[in-house]
Amino acid sequence: MINISNEHLIEKTRSKEDIYDGKIIDVKKLAVELPNGKEAYREVVYHKGAVGVIATDSECMYFVKQFRISTEEVLLEVPAGKIEIDEHPDDTVKKELKEEIGGESGDIKKLYEFYVSPGFSNELIHLYEANEVSFGDSQLEDDEFLDIVKIPLAELKEKMHNGEFRDGKTLVAVHHVLLSRGYL
User: Fold this and answer.
1) DSSP 49-74
2) Is 96:81 a contact under the CB 8 Å cutoff?
3) How far apart are CA 171 and CA 64, in angstroms?
4) Which pairing describes strands 50-56 and 12-21: parallel, antiparallel, or unpaired?
5) In this predicted structure, what is the pLDDT of residue 3?
6) What separation, in Å, do the N-terminal and C-terminal C-alpha atoms of the chain show?
7) 65 with 76: CB under 8 angstroms?
8) Long-range contacts of 138-142 (CB under 8 A, 24+ apart)
């Protein structure tokens, strides 16, 4: 909901041009009217959203290590995945926890929602916490290749400061765990 007192900041969309319609993202070029009445253009990546999950037991936090073509590197991330059409984030998080690390939990709660990079994308991440996770076999999709990494909670702060976490949702997740469990 837009607060009336913020109207002097609002850009009005005048037209949208389809640049790309894909499986995961759509890209559009927008002509906008700026608050001062001038015209400008914006390129926007539209995404259906995703979930990330903090998976812990009493001593460790679980991550996945996978190659990301966009960064050309292997990243250490919390388990995550995109929300499918007509799927609720609460269902996506359970599915991704099982698919990526073989995890299940009866104690899953939503913590935060945040935009990944609002300067050019509407992608919204829903971050959850799953406590006392039990493990079975992971059920990766055909195009997923990853390793499961178990890190003791006492080592998270050092690994964060050493730059081992470079993914935004993972940094938010690790900060949450460190703060909520008294490590910061």
Assistant:
1) -EEEEEEE-SSEEEEEEEEETTTTEE
2) yes
3) 14
4) unpaired
5) 56
6) 34
7) yes
8) 138/98, 138/99, 138/100, 138/101, 138/102, 139/98, 139/99, 139/102, 140/99, 140/100, 141/99
From first to last of its 184 residues, what are the pLDDT tens digits of the chain?
555 678 899 999 999 999 999 999 999 999 999 999 999 999 999 999 999 999 998 899 999 999 999 999 999 999 999 999 999 999 999 999 999 999 999 899 999 999 999 999 999 999 999 988 988 888 877 888 999 999 999 999 999 999 999 999 999 999 999 999 888 7
User: 173: closest CA among 129, 134, 135?
Assistant: 129
Alpha carbon of 62 to those of 5, 42, 113: distances in Å?
Answer: 43, 38, 20
The token duo for 148 is 């499961």
150, two tokens: 């178990």
Write out the two tokens for 160: 């964060």
Q: What share of the chain is helix, strand, coil (3-state, %, to 5)?
A: 20, 45, 35
